[in-house]
Design brief:
By secondary structure, the chain is α+β, with helices and mostly antiparallel strands. It folds into 2 domains: 89 residues; 233 residues, 2-Layer Sandwich (BirA Bifunctional Protein, domain 2), CATH 3.30.930.10. β3 and β4 form a beta hairpin. α1 packs antiparallel against α2, α2 packs antiparallel against α4 and α5 crosses α10. The N and C termini lie far apart (89 Å). Bound molecules: 3,4-dihydroxyphenylalanine. The site of 3,4-dihydroxyphenylalanine (DAH) has 11 residues, from β9 and β10.
């Protein structure tokens, strides 16, 4: 039996030596060391030996088993290392290879300009109205009547305003100023809101005009609001948006819903004030209309103009973007030409 044990041992050592993978090593381990392995078969026959032989052969079998277990473990460790290295080598990533090209979408310049304007005005204390107070499909009541725009005002003319077939007095809004009425009908002063959105006008399309564009309306109503506050807010807005070095001017004007009214011009970016085609030779470009809210408008929404006063303004987003980025044709915003859009 001793010889038998030693023979098995020699074979096992040779087998272990030969294997070159962990799975083959598992097979060898099974063949010799498992419950059904060759050593256990021998150990089963120990009971037929004398006590003396049992001890000798038994302890030899144990010795050999533990030696083999050690060998198997060593072999396992070394195979594990080699296999791991092989795997790492195979799965190695070449970080120097060029990546796959993924075309990247960009924010539309009108969207980013709107975000920029809104965030400047938020910094000055204004908050954006809820969308329910700023619908694009509007009644004449909000778009005109309550803004003190008389029935015979040319702005109501079918030439300018898109009427709908929904009902006789339903229009696509021609200005965001109607949001003022929505807000003031629902909320008492102090009110300090802005309302960005799209407006529609029945214009002949050219480099300066499109049949829809975007405005940002502003409204501030409280006690003791003066024209000085209006100038302060708008000057600060312009300084932040254009930078301090861009000359601007306030010019007196007229809007039915403000009294007094003003328009704000900034120096033409195309000619630097010398006068060119873009600014029709004046050197200036209008960016917004503004004024003190007309007492008639306040009265209409139930705010007492003896107690409260306010200012309002409406600026054109396309205008502001064109002036900042020197874009000379409004149609570029709506053509979806990626050569244009990629520049932003
Ligand atoms: N709604 C005017 C327009 O579309 C712009 C405007 C002028 C808005 C004066 C105002 C304002 O709030 O006070 O031309």
């Amino acid at each position: 039996m001793k010889e038998q044990l030693e023979r098995i041992y020699t074979n096992a050592v040779a087998d272990i030596e030969k294997v070159d993978s962990i799975s083959l090593l598992e097979d060898v381990k099974g063949k010799y060391l498992s419950r059904k392995g060759e050593f256990n078969e021998i150990k089963k026959n120990l009971k037929n030996l004398s006590d003396e032989d049992k001890r000798i052969v038994g302890s030899l079998a144990n010795d050999i088993t533990s030696k083999l277990e050690k060998l198997v473990q060593e072999k396992y460790d070394s195979l594990y290392k080699t296999e791991l290295n092989k795997k790492l080598q195979k799965e190695r990533i070449d970080v120097t290879l060029p990546g796959k090209f993924v075309p990247k979408g960009k924010v539309h310049p009108l969207t980013s300009t709107t975000h920029e304007i809104v965030s400047i005005l938020q910094g000055l204390g204004f908050s954006v109205v809820e969308s329910k107070d700023s619908p694009e499909v509007e009644t004449e009541y909000f778009n005109f009547d309550m803004l003190n725009i008389p029935k015979d005002h040319p702005a109501r003319d079918v030439q300018d305003t898109f009427f709908t077939t929904l009902a006789p007095n339903v229009v696509l809004r021609s200005q965001t100023s109607g949001a003022q009425i929505h807000v003031m009908e629902n909320k008492k002063p102090p009110i300090r809101v802005i309302s960005p959105g799209r407006v529609y006008r029945n214009e002949n399309i050219n480099a300066r005009k499109y049949n829809f564009f975007h405005q940002i309306e502003g409204l501030y109503v409280d006690k003791n609001i003066t024209f000085g506050d209006l100038k302060g807010v708008l000057n600060e807005f312009i300084r932040i948006y254009f930078g301090a070095s861009r000359p601007t001017r306030f010019r007196s004007s007229f809007f039915p819903f403000t009294e007094p009214s003003a328009e704000v011009d900034v120096q033409c970016i195309m000619c630097g004030g010398k006068g060119c085609r873009t600014c029709s030779g004046t050197g200036w470009l209008e960016i917004l209309g503004a004024g003190m809210v007309d007492p008639n408008v306040l009265r209409g929404v139930g705010i007492d103009p003896e107690i409260y006063s306010g200012f309002a303004f409406g600026m054109g987003v396309e205008r502001l973007a064109m002036l900042k980025y020197a874009i000379d044709d409004i149609r570029l915003f709506f053509n979806d030409d990626v050569r244009f859009l990629n520049q932003f």
